[in-house]
Amino acid sequence: MSEAFTAFGEVASVSIVKEKNTGESQGFGFVEMPVKSEAIAAINGLNDAELNGRRLDVNEARPRQDNRSGGRRR
Q1: Alpha carbon of 58 to those of 5, 35, 47, 70, 71: distances in Å?
Q2: What's the CATH fold of domain 2-55?
Q3: How many CA atoms lie within 13 A of 11 on its CB side?
Q4: Contact by Cβ (8 Å): 1, 29
Q5: In the chain, what are the domain boundaries?
Q6: Mind listing the pLDDT tens digit for each residue in 11-58?
Q7: pTM
Q8: What is the Cα–Cα distance from 51 to 60, expressed in whole angstroms?
Q9: What are the angstrom distances between the C-alpha of 53 and each of 46, 48, 49, 50?
Q10: CA-to-CA distance for 61 and 57, rounded, in angstroms?
Q11: Are strands 13-18 and 25-32 parallel, antiparallel or unpaired?
């Protein structure tokens, strides 16, 4: 996957999120690019593109909205 992003600039890291029990991909991941203009170019160039038979949904990461209450409702 990193090869697709390196076409737009330097890639600092790639992390594919996997299931804990099976080790299989959950279908998403994170790519860190240190130069913002290159990251924006990658977003614009790869969003809705196809990679390995799958359509990519590429966007800037947003802070996680942690709405978990440990299974308890209040």
Answers
A1: 11, 16, 5, 30, 31
A2: Alpha-Beta Plaits (3.30.70)
A3: 15
A4: yes
A5: 2-55
A6: 999 999 999 999 998 989 999 999 999 999 999 999 999 998 999 999
A7: 0.77
A8: 18
A9: 14, 12, 10, 6
A10: 11
A11: antiparallel
